[in-house]
Amino acid sequence: MNDKRVLIFGATGNVGGATAREMLRRGWQVRAVTRNPQSEKARALAALGAEVVQGDMDDRASLGRVVEGFPRVLSVQNWQVSGPEGEVRQGRQVAEAAHSAGVEHLVFASAGTGEADTGVPHFDNKLVIEAYMRDLGLPFTVVRPAPFMELMTAKMFFPPVGIWGFSPKVLGWDTPLPWVAVRDIGIANANIFENPADWIGREIILCGDVKTLSECREIYKAVNGKKPFRIPLPLWLFRKMAGDELIVMWRWMKAWIAEQGPQGLEKIREASRAVCPDPLDVASWLEMEQNGGKGNVKTGGNYE
Questions:
Q1: What percent of the chain has pLDDT over 70?
Q2: What predicted TM-score, i.e. pTM, was given to this entire model?
Q3: Chosen CATH of 1-145 out of 3.40.47.10, 3.40.50.720, 3.40.30.10, 2.60.40.1120
């Protein structure tokens, strides 16, 4: 591929940041879009060689300016920042800007599993954006990351209250969960961008490992010498603090996992190797975290 230019929205977030770093590592010209080019993470990307530009997905005019001239685009929206209506609006506006600019390939960072009418707003909203892109005739690929392994350790996700606290109350300790490291999402996106003929018009769930919360807890103990600290809040208190959406999400995921069964989850994990042939499993990821993130993507900032 001769034209190695890619524009990345949400470049200072998890998915966008991992993709930007991987594309830069491969020698691509990266334009990183952020609301604040002077932030620490934006400056770090600039130091790696990215062109960091100011852009706001709520500002349609700015989108046209930043997308112009870049044939490939990563589109990432953060429902926890924009809210449900804002998520859809931003996704549509990025799609419109990409269509107007003649973008050759857009990779859309979606969520969930692709099933419709889940009752999980940020799952269902992603499908609304996907439908809009199809109506526009955009050439795009959909990636659906499994739950981040970073949920176990990254402070931004409040692990004691989140994955170790309320999640077992909804999922149970022994429900097998698909997991993916943020680093591997970046690798997958890069491989998709480098092979557009294979991936335009397709979608894929990204999964590097399948482990129960109980298994993850034991692996964490083996790596760190102690079990993860947890604050098992009652669901009513968690709901009061954070709302219903995450509770609804995990309940839906538990039902979906039961439908897939172990063989179904393993097929998803194996299929994911098409775009990330050597993914981190939970043990290797936690070992990297224990070693200061060497070889891994250090997370932080907004969930984007």
A1: 96
A2: 0.94
A3: 3.40.50.720
